[in-house]
Design brief:
Number of helices: 9
Shape: elongated
Structural class: mainly alpha
Distance between the termini: 47 Å
Helix content: 55-70%
Oligomer: single chain
Radius of gyration: 21 Å
């Protein structure tokens, strides 16, 4: 069912179409376009768009964090020889999710800034997050085939990831702006609904 139809009916189908399959840039553009006329939406529909856009925002935040870590790793590997027998993609999960080891270097302030978009994501609960971000992380998955001994291949992979990261960052900002618009509309309507009640009680 198209998201506009599901939102018009006030059901949960629109949210399901985002949860049960990977999200791509076309999906994100469609949701942004169809949620543009928020002033015309009723309460149920605008809350449904808010929920959909929140799913997209969290997916973009997660994908951006992974790609930012890839950029840091590839930038570092370009200035030194790669460790023998270890693929660059293997360093991402250990860097992101492993507990700190006092015998190893800790994340720098710059690394923490790159991963700040993960703040607020409940990855342990939202298992569908990995499915939704699958297509957004195609450049990350390509690292499994990267020949790190080739400076040209590493530079090409870095450029591709930086380009994808820039696109996702722009989409993330647009989605966050739309969510802010929705919050303001919901707040204004709540105040308008509450005003008559205050007037009557006075």
């Amino acid at each position: 069912m198209p998201p506009t139809d599901a939102h018009a009916e006030g059901g949960d189908a629109a949210e399901l179409w985002l949860r049960d399959r990977p999200i791509n840039l076309i999906d994100i553009a469609r949701v942004l376009g169809e949620s543009a006329n928020i002033e015309r939406l009723d309460g149920a529909a605008i809350r449904a768009w808010r929920d959909d856009l929140t799913l997209i925002r969290d997916s973009l935040s997660y994908a951006r964090a992974i790609l930012a870590a890839d950029v840091a790793i590839l930038s570092e590997s370009g200035s030194q020889s790669p460790p023998a027998g270890r693929d660059v993609v293997d360093t991402v999960p250990s860097g992101l999710w492993s507990s700190p080891d006092p015998d190893q270097d800790q994340w720098s302030a710059e690394d923490i800034d790159d991963l700040a978009d993960l703040e607020g994501l409940d990855l342990a609960i939202d298992e569908d997050l990995f499915t939704r971000t699958d297509q957004l992380l195609a450049a990350h998955r390509a690292l499994a085939r990267l020949d790190r001994s080739s400076a040209a291949a590493t530079a090409g992979a870095l450029a591709q990831i930086e380009e994808q990261l820039a696109i996702l960052t722009e989409r993330h900002a647009t989605v966050e702006a739309r969510l802010q618009q929705i919050r303001l509309v919901i707040l204004r309507r709540y105040r308008q609904e509450a005003s008559p009640a205050r007037d009557q009680s006075a």
